[in-house]
Amino acid sequence: MKILFPYMARWFAVNWTRYHSLLEVLGQQGHEVHVLQPPSMDSEETNFREIAHREMPNVHLHDVELREGFWNKKLPLDKLVKKAYFSMAAYKDAKKIVAEEGIDLVLLYNIPQYQFMRLKGPKIVFDFADDYIDMLAYELGSLNIAPIRGVAQKMLDSMMKRSDAVLCVSHELAKLAKGNVHVLANGVSGDQMVALVDGKPSNVVATEKFTVGFLGAFEYFIDFDIILDAAEKLPEVHFLLVGSGRDWEGVKQAVADRQLNNIELTGGVPHDEVFDYIDRMDVCLNIFKPIPVSHRACPIKLFEYLSRHKPVISTRLHEMPYIDDADFLYYADEPEELVLAIERIQQNPEEAFEMAHKGYNKVDERFTWEKLATQFLELSTVKN
User: Fold this and answer.
1) Residue 56 main-chain phi, psi, to 5 deg
2) Main-chain dihedrals φ then ψ at residue 144, nearest 5 degrees
């Protein structure tokens, strides 16, 4: 199969998405993937903080030519405007690639890509990976008004109804979807699944202090207040926070203001290195603010943690019961509850290992990118 994927960011960037993982596996399986991407940009966005390129068999990158002066200029609603500008400019390139390469399937994933619905010939698959309307409301700021959200909702509904298949990252998002709807969760590479040796994970890293870790985007939907409160109540525990984003400077300042010497902030790291950091963690955090965009998420970090046999403490997100059907997660929604969960894991390592191992088995059974890539191909060709 030949797949075209218009991507509204730099492909080799700190932010490694479900699309990188799915399409890389499909390339390894012999399918041909063509990625349209915008030019580089001087930006703090993790989507544009570039990392070294690596070989990805059968994945071909195509840079779309844009007006440099406009592309690098800071604009009102910069993120939204740039996505729309790139998507409009990329349509001509997409049409050419569809004709020249004989593309079988076009994979879309957001409202600014509306014009790609006009492409003739290939199947159109819409990947509903986030609560786009809720995220749009945040990005609009003071312009978050009902008429704008209404137009965006109509465009989103139209894209889903006109697509040959709609793949939803969570069951909660699937409740909002239109058309030929299926659930395709997130996952982790099978290569990162850590085997047991003599009944113990082979990735154990000796650390001086008991370490609680977080991996992911430093964005408005992560509840860093709970994490920092727990760190303040547990001064003998080391907190390792890995990642970057628009809230990173704010978290860094809060750590300094509260004189939390037990917190380590790494900043953004390439995806190839994140598992080394997870291996340093004794407990992993899947902590979110209880808002719609969080409840409808399927966090990749959760599967990455579990692939390394780590016990996980999670917020009670609405999607978790669909994943945690074997009761392998610990839960905390308040600082005091998080402190108690951390202390429970610290004091009951055998129980924590059993919980983590149940989670590992669930990931191995259902949530590897290799299995998900097979599902992607099957669901993309299922008719209503």
Assistant:
1) -130, 100
2) -75, 85
